[in-house]
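Run log, item B.
One chain of 626 residues. Sequence copied directly from the ordering sheet:
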Amino acid sequence: MTSPATSASDTITLTTAQAIIKWLSNQYIEIDGEELRLCGGGFGIFGHGNVTCLGEALYNVQDELPLYRGQNEQSMGFAAAGYAKQWLRQRFMFCTASAGPGTSNLVTAAGLAHANRLPMLLLCGDTFLTRLPDPVLQQMENFNDPTFGVNDAFKPVVRYWDRITHPAQIIQSLPNAIATMLDPADCGPAFLGLPQDVQGWTYDYPAVFFEKKVHRIRRQTPDAAEIADAIALLKTAERPMIIAGGGVQYSRAVDELTGFAEAHQIPVVETIAGRANMLATHPLNIGPIGVTGSDSANAIAAKADVIVAVGTRLQDFTTGSWTAFAKDARFISINTARHDAGKHMSLPVVGDAKLSLGALDADLDYAAPADWVGFAQAERQKWDAYVEDNVSYGNRPNSYAQAIGVVNALCDKRDRVVAAAGGLPAEVTANWRTLDQGTVDVEFGFSCMGYELAGAWGARIAQMEREPDQDTITFCGDGSYMMLNSDIYSSVLSRKKMIVMLLDNGGFAVINKLQNNTGNESFNNLIADCPTVPEPFGVDFVAHAASMGAEAEKVSNPAELGEAFKRAKASDKTYVIVMDVDPYEGWTTEGHAWWEVGTPHITDSDRVRAAHVDWEASRDKQRKGV
């Protein structure tokens, strides 16, 4: 509706870049009755392709859309993902990069956002539309199709893709990009390719295009017939179970999940993305499920006859490559995304988790048998005892689990915990005892090394907008640190404090473990086992972190780590704590479901052959799509 002050015929002459930024500045979202700017700002590295036009436009809105200077385009995307997770997909950041390799560096970050269903806007430089200066610096020429370039590589890893070839196109493209990023079913990254010349071209835009717009995220009402079918199936259950995924938090349905489970006495297990849906002490929380899960959750999964999957895409780490469940178990999948709701012959309930759980609860007269609930709780008690011993320390080698236990005991209940890739996400998933809802971010959807630091920086930016007195704590291995560490510097520059628990096991130890578990010799994973390394040595991580402006110290054992963590909590600056951990001992050995890994069918190695036979022995448990 046009405001009285603006006529439908009024126009504003702007460049394409200026119009994009002016429009973004006027997009808001309603969250808990409060109107906030939808876009929290952006991460940018300028170069040819974005500095002269987009940079000019951004300069004039520094207060409305703060621009954080990245050190690496991939890490900028990770930071944007961490920000979106912290805001439960209700707000997003944009990333801008120059034409060529600056933009292509964002492909991995886009893949992470796509796999995790996270909103992120990519405003990326592109080659000249006129082609008069072709080929330009860093242009990737395709001899048979001049319209095909590096930016087309984003098409498989974004939910929305457009190349702006005329200034007027943003009138349709920008709202479509935002609609995609806010859609619960299609949420993911949106990409706009911005040719260098088009960014500077002008157009007489309708003034109404720039009026303030307040967005609300749609809640999809489930179909009554699907709810009725789900109720009918659930009433037949003798051993029901709920799998709670990350979608429960994105729907803000944690209370509804808890209430539904309590009303019907149904045990709940959590996916990796769904960690921190329920507190560790809740009597119906039976633990994390799957390959990096718990004996307790996997024990009831193997016996459950009706499984209600809420807000999960049922990836292989959750399902144990589809060996974690009885072959005749029936699934009810509640999901806003039709694609996820129908997986593995599930009875689908396509709808918002909050609304769907409410609809189920309203008409469901059912409670799970007491002996089934008792079995589940007894299994959880055994798992709790295992974790308590696993995180303890004394006369045993330093381990990830010990470090996790120390931080768990000393952190504030609202501190945010971040982990990604390598061995740490598995160890955090299995050993972390949730202190409060929505406080754990384990990035295992795309399993990107390097997210630990960059994602934590983005999460910290978001955290300071709502809970500035809490800390963001990230668990990082030495391999991930070496891969992408520059956002320690970013966090110091922007005064967004992180606490980094840097656990050094001398290389890529978890992949070395997989290598050994499949009968292979250690090779090229631990620094000591690299054939091209004549004299292995460790990195001085304390000196390195300090050189980027962080406070840093190295400790010898978990007891010292606890004291260092107290100092880190008291500090107002990014703080890095380094501790060596054993690459072979101290892993969480319980709780693992089978995981399908390709192993050699023929080999000269007796160990590899034996491991292959042992690995394949569990394949008969695998559900074949039903």
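Observations after the first pass:
- The chain has 24 helices and 23 strands.
- The longest strand covers residues 120-126.
Flagged for discussion on Thursday.
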